[in-house]
Write a structure and sequence with these properties.
By secondary structure, the protein is mainly alpha-helical. The protein has one domain. It has 4 helices and no strands. Helix 2 crosses helix 3.
């Protein structure tokens, strides 16, 4: 496994992150084809590189399966609980940067048509 695609070890994941994921899911249903480790690393890859879900490398599995598991976890608040728990345990240091249009310069032609969204005749 490449460190580029899997930035954390599977041992660290199984010890610190996987128990937090398993707390929020039930065991009912079909067995998972893609492991929680692959879903977590794929989500980290998407967040780190900015690549679209459809462009995930095949080593993670089918992109739609990964996306649905990420979305379901996001709806349940799993990802924020993982980040908060890892920060409390001093296993993670994370800096969050928020940018908006007042801090990023846009070229004068990058704003769209003059006069708003009305189409010219």
């Amino acid at each position: 496994m490449s460190k580029r695609f899997y930035p954390i070890s599977e041992d660290f994941f199984n010890e610190h992150i996987n128990p937090l994921i398993k707390q929020r899911y039930s065991k009912a249903g079909r067995p998972q084809k893609v492991s929680n480790y692959q879903v977590f690393c794929a989500a980290m890859y998407v967040l780190r590189t900015g690549v679209g879900w459809r462009d995930l490398p095949p080593c993670f599995g089918y992109w739609h399966t990964i996306y649905l598991r990420f979305k379901k976890g996001n709806d349940r608040g799993i990802w924020w609980s993982i980040i908060l728990k890892l920060q409390q345990d001093k296993k993670l240091t994370m800096n969050i940067v928020i940018a908006d249009s007042t801090t990023i310069k846009t070229h004068r032609h990058g704003g769209g048509l003059k006069g708003g969204s009305k189409a010219r005749a």
